[in-house]
Amino acid sequence: MQDSTSTPAAPLYAAPALVDFADALLSRAGLAPGMARSVARTLVDGDLLGHDTHGLALLAGYVKEVEAGTMRREGAPLVISDKPAAVLWDGQRLPGPWLVHQGIDLLLPRARQLGSATLVIRRSHHIACLAVYMMRALEEGMLAVLACSDPNSASVAPYGGTQAVFTPNPLALGFPLSQGGVMVDVSASITTNGMSNRKRAAGETFDADRLIDAQGRPGRDPQLLFDDPPGTLLPVGGLDHGHKGYGLALLVESLTGGLAGHGRADPKEGWGATVYLTLHDLDAFGGKEAFLRQMDHLADACRTNRPIDTARPVRLPGEAGLNRRTQQSRDGVRLHHSIALALAPLGERFGLRFDQALA
Q1: Dist CA 295 CA 297 (whole Å)
Q2: pLDDT by residue (tens digit) across 22-47?
Q3: Helix, strand or coil, per DSSP, at residue 143
Q4: DSSP classification of residue 53
Q5: Domain 11-74+328-359 falls under CATH 1.10.1530.10
Q6: What does residue 45 show for φ and ψ, rounded to 5 degrees?
């Protein structure tokens, strides 16, 4: 018999139905059909992987941006520079997920021909969950590096400082193994704005110091980001070793704003991203077979490593996400409760029922 005081399990949603809902919502808000579908799939893939602050949790904000015209509804990126292995686009504030997928399509044949190819995009809109794009690297047998920053906002102070200069500045890496692959998706800050916003809305705090206030005092309450003057997120490494995250943030800024020639030194335009993407063809270097021999060996050394806690064996980055994606694609997606609360009334406004996506 179920305990009457227990919390009921969150409902399950069918992934294809979620894609259809997001696609229809974005289309009715005015986004061009192909773009809407690309964005919808990318957001749902984020939830399938378990990155639920960067999946459908972003959809309401994207719709708002489309309606306001701050996410461009149609068009194409402007080519600023095009050399065989190095391309610069002006994304013209088009949807970030669509731009990144278009960029991968552009780079794949060039990387296969030249060994490596790089695209930098300035003035993209937000690009959602970076790990989603790493799945394409696994599928195509490529090593991919992806990074982004948002020059329009700041919530992370440089190590030793108290005033925000950086965004969390995520960095992703993906490559295949003989079985599965590795997908790293980390940020230069110790936590993200998305998680901070979610905890603040729920009246929750972090379980350890993740922020500092405007005087540099450590804290756990995400409200610190909204105080006047505001606090900031700590870089990776925290109060003791935050120089590590500071260095990573500068790496991402140089790859994005630096190479783009457009970033924090320019006027702000609203929520967006500057993007760096490189694809490496494994056969252009030591060869795919040799790459897999090396990385399979390392993967095995990690997986068979004696764990601190036998109940928690060592995993590879992305392994749990790929397993979760397989399971949720089959059984249904379990969304964070805040997502349905935001999307149900928004769907009704456009004549759509979010509960029709229930598995």
Answers
A1: 5
A2: 999 999 999 999 999 999 999 999 99
A3: strand
A4: T
A5: yes
A6: -60, -35
